[in-house]
Amino acid sequence: MLSRRFQRGSIVALVAALSLSACDVSQQTTQNQQPAPQAQNQTRSQQNPTLAQQPQTQQPQTQSAPQAQQPQTQQPQTANSGGVGGLTDQQIGSGGVAAAQTRPTPIANNDQNLVSEYERVINNVYERNIGALVNLSDGQVTGSGFIVDTQGHIITNNHVASNLQQITITFSDRTSGVGKLVGAFAAGDIAVIQADHIPNGVQPVELGDSGNLKVGQITVAMGSPLGLEQTVTSGIISALNRSIDDVNQQATADSSSSSLQGLIQTDAPINPGNSGGPLFDSHGRVIGMDTLIATRATSEATAGSIGLGFAVPINRIKRVAQQIIQTGHYNRPVMGISSFPIDPRIARVLNLPVTSGIMVAKLTGPQAQQAGLRAATTSTNLQASDGSQVQFPTNGDIIVAINNTPVRTTGDLRNVIETQANPGDTVTITFVRDGREQTTRLTLK
After folding, report:
1. Could you check whether 206-327 and 337-443 share the same CATH topology?
2. Residues 130-141 pLDDT 10s
3. Rounded distance between C-alpha atoms, residue 174 and residue 172, angstroms
């Protein structure tokens, strides 16, 4: 479902025409429509019927900016017979099909080695994992998924699984099967599907470790963009630890409860239909699941990749999927607190000893009380970024790390807990009280 914010299923466009789009669920339309015939010397720049019009860049505002038509660029025309737009058949290839140069520009030996090595990496990832890639559809919408064990469990996005009226699985050998939903974690956009069978010889994917990723690493995305099965694209890790709030300028309390935190950002092209598909590292190990794209499109029809794709990290998926497969549902580990994030502005106004972290507002569970955390006893009114007044706690403990991993926002806190621990696990909390850093142990519920 395109151009939607993750706010309990509401479908809205983001401000300034920057919309967050679930990269699943591409609507299946007639693929065989042909463009209208063109005059022989007419420009070919607008003949592609799938080419989306580009919106003009808009300043931030409270509603999506209107879409503007891209001006057509006319190519110079000549009376050169036997060609199109002044190009001869020799230049564009026989039969009107573009052909490679007869004598391509040679590549220096060193550069040629680099290119062939990169190609080898991408091809190896493809050959190793194509058998575990599946297309999920009900005839109306389509998404992607990947097989994670020999019992036929398939990982995909919840927003893919929840939109399918029935689940038809198409495997890489073009055979099909039927799937049923085992369980889902909506806040994390993770679902597990059970296939009625898997083809002989199919090897499940290998799950990697998203905790050791580096910006700049090669990424390979596989899936069914716009229903085009077994599509492979590549890029790099552009950034780590992204949150839905980073691209959703209209973040609300509902988005702050989302588990779409710690996301992997990649410039590997991801489009509608890719959702639920695997994101691999250069060794062919799954490091994430393609889930979101940021786009300047103002409608679902024109949403597509602009190089800003986001994947749920595999370490979160492993914990969620394991619980779902075993029990049919996922129980979120919780600390038993309500909290407010601190930023430099708030720290300056309240004269706090740190400029980032999570202030404990209330203790909502016995686990936090047993750990000795202290909630705020005083509060004050502060102006939020949207101009509203917020009652902000002033003297609670400030959590700055969990298991030695820095915590700056509520998203950081949730990401650390949900990727490193399960309910019943004990974590080390580092917090600041009265200007002094302390630690305690807390058992998650």
Report:
1. no
2. 999 999 999 888
3. 5
- Does 153 participate in catalysis according to the annotation? no
Q: Per residue in 402-429, pLDDT tens?
A: 999 999 888 888 888 888 888 999 999 9
- Our answer to whether residue 275 is catalytic in this structure is yes
- The owner of tokens 């990947």 is 146
Whole-angstrom Cα distance, residue 145 to residue 386?
A: 39
Query: Which position among 24, 26, 144, 159 bears the catalytic label?
Result: 159
pLDDT at 169: 95
Check if 149 is active-site. no
Statement: 206-327 belongs to CATH 3.60.10.10:
no
Predicted TM-score (pTM) of this structure: 0.71
Catalytic position from the list 144, 275, 339, 356: 275
* CATH level 2 (architecture), domain 337-443: Roll (2.30)
What is the DSSP secondary structure assignment for residue 87, as one 8-state letter? B
Choose, from 189, 267, 281, 290, the residue flagged as catalytic.
Answer: 189
Distance of CA 373 to the CA centre of its chain: 34
Half-sphere exposure (CA, 13 Å, Cβ side) for 229?
A: 19
96 has a pLDDT exceeding 60: no
pLDDT at 368 over 80: yes
Domain spans in the chain, listed from the N-terminal domain onward: 206-327, 337-443
